[in-house]
Design goal:
The protein folds into 4 domains: 7-79, Ubiquitin-like (UB roll) (Roll), CATH 3.10.20.90; 83-286, Alpha Horseshoe (Leucine-rich Repeat Variant), CATH 1.25.10.10; 298-321 and 334-509, no CATH class; 530-672, PH-domain like. The protein is built from 30 helices and 11 strands. A 4-stranded mixed β-sheet has the order 2-1-4-3. Strands 5-6-7-8 form a 4-stranded antiparallel β-sheet. Strands 9-10-11 form a 3-stranded antiparallel β-sheet. A hairpin with a 6-residue loop joins strand 1 (7-13) and strand 2 (20-25).
């Protein structure tokens, strides 16, 4: 008979004593449980003791978290959090260097526990940490433990970052700005400043003033990968907290200092593999840079702005200045207006008498005008060739430069997500972005010439405009999916992917779809499905057995803390626990926490998850919602919360957990994988029927013969 839900069987250890095996009554007060345990070992003053997990983070057991204790858990009897906090509070004030160092080391470890942190902070422990840092007498290892303890204590949000003293902040800044400082101290100092920046405008301005961009660039150029990562994290935090004007100035300065080239050469193409955290920061840097185009993208053209009208006129003059034999100033006003309208029509404006009207639509707004002007000024020969070549064609066959540019700018904004907020977890950046100044404009220059090339290949007319731009969008997206490392490589590949290649790809995809729609093939698909679905189930469970590294995401910032979760080989227990950066696949024995699969009740997704409801921010980050899921186990109030690193991992975990719960796999990845496997299996089965058309209905079965006398009797032949 299974034990009651409110009873768990556990082991309790104590140094120098034989462990106790007890049945913990969850309804019994914790103070009574501790008294019983102490009495068994003849220990007085039970109130001075507490229980904590023996493995993993060694969290203290309280009335609030005791429900998380599982059957088979190993606990340890130790000094109570208030006693330990008092001891360490005294220890960090000791004049003995060894005692002080050991106390700070223990403090850095225990501060991860919320119960201990509360007790230590209640004793004004942070004030002592401030004093140690402000006095500046301690360096090296002792200072690193102090800063680590401070970081862990602040992580619990008991104290506001705005309460930090000016002297403390000045000291942290000095560790970042000094050269002869231990690398671990500089890493922790950069992390502290990174946490300070988003909390208030005052702290942002203070850090921005004291830690210059030049200093951050110096840290970015070191060989220490962790120091480089922390410097990038602070730089990103400053960029995200800045106003639009400040962000633009900061980005301009960074580009002047060739940070783009440095990142492309020394980080992206480094001999060391790019970590997830750095990939995320590069994605954010790319996103922030591209979003500088948003203001122009959302601004309509003002027909009364002389500056904007001059830009428009420069397009016309660059293309047609050598065409006119006499200068336009010699013509009458009416003649000059007529000539301008004719030239704007040749440029491809829909409203040639007032071309500003074409640019009133936002997006793409003035960004389209900026792109056209950039193209005309930086590649004047290609610009003139585009315009004049189309001017000489029949009206219905000419490719309208202006109209194409406006639509292409909009397409590029959509593909590159200009104007969209940065994701908290995304890591998808384009390596070629960091290899090219004026990336957006240069990409436009390549793609507008691609429009003209594709227009000619399609022998398009004005009625085909949308079809041409649809093909161009496909050419761009297919090429970008290959992640070219430079714009030159992008240009080569996108031009190779001409209209005939696009048609071949479409035809291949269409034929594949058609051949799989024949009735006999559909019947064969249905017969193959169960076997292939079982194969997918096995793959999902195998992936869960290999495990995945998850990040802890808070409402304040993207956490550095990692945890790992994996399924046991017998598919009966989920093991999980915190891990350090750089650990790829920890052994299952090193993961202290566990959830029996039999205790799993249900799966929650997106907005239903407790950790997405807990966020105080009113606007939920869309990508976190799309990647969040929770396992409800035992009784419904206990959940293990996840935020998957990618959509792919999300789908695999959702499928694997549904298999464990005995439910259908419902992710989009299941259908994709099933389609791929069915396609491969069908092609193998139908290999002998190549070039033979499969009828929709089977051929009729012939009528039986009138007699069966045609059967040969072998018995007579043997005689």
């Amino acid at each position: 008979m299974p034990p009651p839900k409110d009873v768990v069987k556990i082991a309790i250890q104590m140094v120098g004593a034989i462990p106790q095996l007890i049945e913990l009554q969850q309804t019994k007060p914790l103070a009574s449980v501790l008294k019983d345990v102490c009495d068994a070992w003849s220990l007085p003053n039970a109130e001075r003791y507490a229980l904590q997990y023996a493995d993993g983070r060694q969290t203290y057991i309280t009335e609030l978290n005791r429900g998380e204790i599982k059957n088979g858990s190993i606990l340890r009897l130790t000094t109570s959090p208030d006693q330990e906090a008092e001891r360490l509070y005294s220890g960090i004030q000791s004049n003995n260097s060894d005692v002080k160092t050991d106390s700070l080391k223990k403090l850095a470890s225990l501060s991860q526990d919320v119960t201990f942190a509360q007790e230590f902070i209640n004793r004004n422990g942070l004030k002592q940490i401030f004093r140690i840092v402000e006095e500046g007498n301690d360096t090296g290892e002792m200072l690193a433990y102090t800063l680590k303890a401070f970081m862990e204590l602040m992580e619990h949000d008991f104290v506001s970052w705005e309460t930090l003293s000016a002297a403390f902040i000045k000291k942290i800044v000095s560790y970042v700005n000094m050269n002869a400082v231990d690398a671990s101290v500089q890493q922790l100092s950069l992390s502290i400043l990174e946490n300070m920046v988003p909390t208030s405008r005052h702290l942002f301005e203070l850090v921005k003033k004291e830690v210059t961009l030049d200093r951050l660039l110096t840290h970015l150029q070191v060989t220490n990968a962790q120091l480089q990562l922390k410097a990038m994290a602070l730089l990103i935090a400053l960029l995200l907290a800045a106003t639009d004007a400040e962000r633009r100035d900061m980005m301009d300065y960074l580009w002047e200092k060739n940070i783009r080239q440095f990142i492309h050469k020394n980080i992206i193409h480094s001999s060391e593999p790019l970590g997830d955290e750095m990939a995320h920061y590069l994605y954010v840097l790319q996103s922030v840079s591209l979003n500088l185009c948003e203001r122009r993208m959302r601004t309509s053209m003002d027909p009364y702005s002389q500056e904007q009208r001059d830009l428009l006129q420069s397009l016309r003059q660059t293309a047609f200045e050598s065409e006119s034999e006499a200068p336009a100033s010699n013509f009458s006003t009416e003649r000059r207006r007529s000539l301008c309208a004719k030239e704007f029509r040749k440029l491809g404006f829909m409203n040639n008498s007032n071309p500003a009207e074409d640019l009133r639509r936002a997006p793409p707004g003035l960004l389209a005008l900026d792109n056209m002007v950039y193209f005309s000024r930086h590649t004047p020969n290609a610009y003139s060739r585009f315009v004049l070549e189309n001017s000489s064609r029949e009206d219905k066959h000419e490719c309208p430069f202006a109209r194409s540019s406006i639509q292409l700018t909009l397409i590029l904004c959509e593909i590159l997500h200009v104007g969209e907020p940065c994701s908290e977890t995304a890591q998808a950046f384009y390596p070629m972005f960091f290899g090219q100044d004026h990336f957006f404009e240069e990409l436009f220059c390549i793609c507008i010439q691609l429009v003209n090339k594709t227009w000619k290949e399609m022998r398009a007319t004005q009625e085909d405009f949308d079809k041409v731009l649809q093909v161009v969008r496909e050419q761009i997206t297919r090429t970008l999916s290959l992640k070219p490392t430079s714009l030159e490589l992008f240009k080569t590949r996108v031009n190779t992917l001409n209209y005939s290649e696009i048609l071949k790809l479409r035809q291949t995809e269409r034929l594949h779809q058609e051949e799989t729609l024949a009735v006999p093939v559909l019947e064969l698909r249905e017969r193959l499905k169960p076997e292939l679905l079982e194969l997918i189930r096995q793959q999902r469970l195998l992936h869960l057995c290999e495990g995945t590294l998850f990040r802890k995401i808070s409402s304040r910032r993207r956490q550095d803390k990692l945890w790992y979760c994996r399924l046991s080989p017998n598919h009966k227990v989920l093991h999980y626990g915190d891990v350090e950066e750089g650990v790829c696949s920890p052994p299952i024995e090193s993961l202290p926490e566990k959830i029996p699969v039999a205790d799993m009740k249900m799966l929650l997704v997106g907005k239903e998850c407790p950790h997405t409801k807990e966020k105080s921010s009113g606007k939920q980050n869309k990508d976190v919602l799309e990647l969040a899921f929770s396992i409800v186990y035992d009784v419904e109030e206990y959940c293990l919360n996840f935020v998957a690193p990618t959509r792919y991992e999300f789908c695999l975990w959702m499928d694997g957990l549904n298999v464990l719960l005995g439910k259908e796999m419902t992710s989009e990845r299941t259908q994709t994988d099933l389609d791929i496997l069915l396609s491969m299996e069908l092609k193998l089965r139908l290999l002998d029927l190549e070039n033979i058309s499969i009828p929709d209905t089977p051929p009729p079965v012939p009528k039986p013969p009138s007699n069966l006398n045609f059967c040969y009797d072998f018995s007579h032949a043997e005689q």
